[in-house]
């Protein structure tokens, strides 16, 4: 694998410095910062190589992330500055060398997993370390045929979900209103239905909207589908049989989680 170019090194160092500064600049855990950054618009600007042309300072980056995700003080465990610098750097190397988005790389090495590689790999050349890490998880770049198959499978499953619009279902709530999942506070009840298995062989996820108290179960009607353009996990929207919400209203209600994705609402 070819060495990094001077521009790519600058991009990696810029991200590394943000990660390093996060130790002092944030009130939440390093793992939470990592997830937020890798799902943020700032992270995407690194993917697009546009960050180098932006005028924000490192301090501005943290203000922008608070605006995007809200302020948080969840989690106390902080990684060291050396660890965070390396994590920020190696994430960007993997993105560049394997042509992957920040979100995709985070799914391969999340905030708890990535730090485990520090002691093993931080003394290696960054490109060599990236190769070793990808080999350790048996990563294989998908072929054109595999990509096309997955895309078609995804389209067919979305059509199956759309076929559930108007149907009565029972939602078993795993994360009720007020539930705190790694800093994400659930403002709607969220769970699954047992009438359908999703692409990853788990029960299909669903939001319950229009009810403003924590629930354990809910019987209602599927009124919409949340179609995620950058994730394989579409979601059902379930509400009272007589409920009626616009696409904009639904997106606002589920924004606490869908802001991490490019989502659109499909109505009947």
Q: Please tell me the overall pLDDT.
A: 92
Portion in beta strands = 15-25%
Which residue ranges are poorly predicted, with pLDDT under 50 across at least 5 consecutive positions? none
Order of helical and strand elements: HHHHHHHHHHEEEEEEEHHE
Q: Summarize the biggest pleated sheet.
A: 5 strands, mixed, barrel
Structural class: alpha+beta
The main sheet orders its strands as 1-4-5-7-6
Number of helices: 12
Total strands: 8
What topology emerges from the helices and strands here?
Layout: H1 6-25, H2 30-38, H3 41-47, H4 58-69, H5 81-98, H6 102-108, H7 111-114, H8 118-121, H9 126-136, H10 144-162, E1 168-175, E2 180-181, E3 184-185, E4 189-197, E5 203-208, E6 217-228, E7 235-239, H11 247-253, H12 255-258, E8 263-267
Parallel strand pairs: 5-7
Antiparallel strand pairs: 1-4, 1-6, 2-3, 4-5, 6-7, 6-8
Helix pairs in contact: 1-4, 1-5, 5-6, 5-9
Characterization of the model:
β6 and β7 form a beta hairpin. α1 (6-25) crosses α4 (58-69), α1 (6-25) runs antiparallel to α5 and α5 (81-98) packs across α9. The chain contains 12 helices and 8 strands. With 268 residues, the chain is of the alpha+beta class. The strands form 2 sheets. The chain has a 5-stranded mixed β-barrel with strand order 1-4-5-7-6. Strands 2-3 form a two-stranded antiparallel ribbon. The chain is globular and about 60 Å long. The model has no long low-confidence stretch (mean pLDDT 92).
Which descriptors apply to this entry?
single chain, alpha+beta, five-stranded mixed β-barrel, 12 helices
């Amino acid at each position: 694998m070819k060495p990094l170019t001077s521009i790519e090194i600058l991009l990696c160092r810029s991200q590394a410095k943000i990660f390093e500064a996060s130790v002092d600049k944030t009130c939440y855990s390093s793992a939470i910062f990592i997830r937020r950054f890798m799902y943020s618009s700032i992270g995407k600007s690194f993917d697009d190589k546009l960050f180098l042309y932006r005028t924000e300072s490192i301090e501005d980056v943290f203000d922008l992330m608070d605006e995007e995700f809200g302020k948080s003080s969840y989690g106390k465990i902080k990684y060291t500055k050396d660890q965070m610098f390396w994590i920020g750097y190696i994430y960007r190397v993997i993105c560049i060398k394997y042509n992957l988005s920040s979100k995709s790389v985070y799914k391969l090495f999340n905030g708890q997993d990535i730090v485990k590689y520090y002691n093993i790999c931080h003394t290696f050349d960054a490109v060599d370390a990236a190769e070793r890490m990808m080999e350790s998880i048996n990563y294989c770049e998908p072929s054109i045929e595999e990509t096309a198959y997955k895309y078609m499978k995804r389209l067919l499953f979305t059509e199956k979900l759309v076929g559930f619009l108007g149907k009565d279902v029972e939602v078993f709530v795993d994360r009720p209103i007020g539930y705190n999942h790694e800093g994400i506070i659930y403002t709607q009840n969220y769970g699954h239905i047992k009438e359908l298995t999703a692409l990853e062989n788990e029960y299909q996820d669903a939001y319950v909207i229009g009810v403003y108290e924590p629930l354990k179960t809910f019987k209602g009607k599927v009124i919409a589908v949340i179609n995620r353009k950058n994730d394989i996990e579409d979601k059902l929207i379930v509400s009272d049989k007589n409920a009626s919400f616009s696409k904009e209203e639904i997106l606002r209600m589920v924004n606490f989680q869908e802001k991490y994705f490019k989502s659109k609402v499909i109505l009947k």
